[in-house]
Design goal:
Oligomer: single chain
CATH superfamily: DhaL domain
CATH topology: Serine Threonine Protein Phosphatase 5, Tetratricopeptide repeat
Radius of gyration: 16 Å
Strand content: under 5%
Number of domains: 1
CATH architecture: Alpha Horseshoe
Number of strands: 0
């Protein structure tokens, strides 16, 4: 993973989040705290505005800067969670970042950091219901064809996001809703799916 690719992903993710505003906001109004999209968009725009400053940085430093910026920019519960993910990811990229094994291990470390900070796990109707399956898929396909892996990740993220409809929440504001949360996709799972899909599309563009 090169810095130029990360910069393209930043722009792609920002555009995708803006395009899915209605989807994410409606989900958050139904079972969330109502400010997930606002905070997420604020963080994306902040990172996007500094993307050109990353030109001479190795990927490890880029992810560290992203984590620190998110920590100071995104409010609510999701800010520290996303920040923890990127800060942990940065620690696993000790070379120029063009290391799929290092990225895979860093992604897993980032997911574990979210689990620890959020005191949550798979099956509790949170963003982890998307992130954990993606981490497992990355680990199983670390040496696979990059375009095939991207296609599988995109598909898995969508399936995992949709599966949160049938889960009862045990964490966050929606935990108090009980059965009333059934039938609703978790907004954090949806936003993660949107961002992961945007990265996959950036990868697949190179194949066209």
């Amino acid at each position: 993973m090169k810095t130029e690719f990360i910069q393209r992903c930043i722009k792609g993710i920002t555009q995708a989040i803006i395009e899915h505003e209605n989807d994410i906001e409606s989900l958050d109004r139904a079972i969330g705290d109502g400010d997930h999209y606002i905070n997420l968009k604020r963080g994306c725009l902040a990172i996007n505005s500094m993307a050109n400053d990353f030109n001479l940085m190795p990927p490890s430093d880029v992810f560290k800067k992203i984590g620190m910026k998110l920590l100071s920019t995104i409010g609510g519960a999701s800010g520290p969670l996303f920040a923890s993910f990127f800060l942990e990811l940065s620690k696993s990229l000790e070379n120029d970042g063009d290391d799929r094994d290092g990225f895979t291990k860093g992604f897993a470390s980032g997911v574990r950091a979210i689990m620890t900070r959020g005191k949550s796990d798979f099956g509790e109707k949170t963003m982890l219901d998307v992130l954990i399956p993606i981490s497992e898929l990355l680990n199983n396909r670390v040496d696979g064809d990059i375009f095939d892996v991207a296609t599988q990740i995109d598909r898995k993220a969508n399936e995992a996001m949709l599966a949160t409809k049938d889960l009862l929440p045990t964490k966050g504001r929606s935990a108090g809703l009980g059965d009333r949360a059934l039938g609703h996709i978790d907004p954090g799972a949806k936003s993660c799916q949107v961002m992961i899909s945007a990265v996959c599309q950036e990868i697949l563009k190179a194949k066209k």
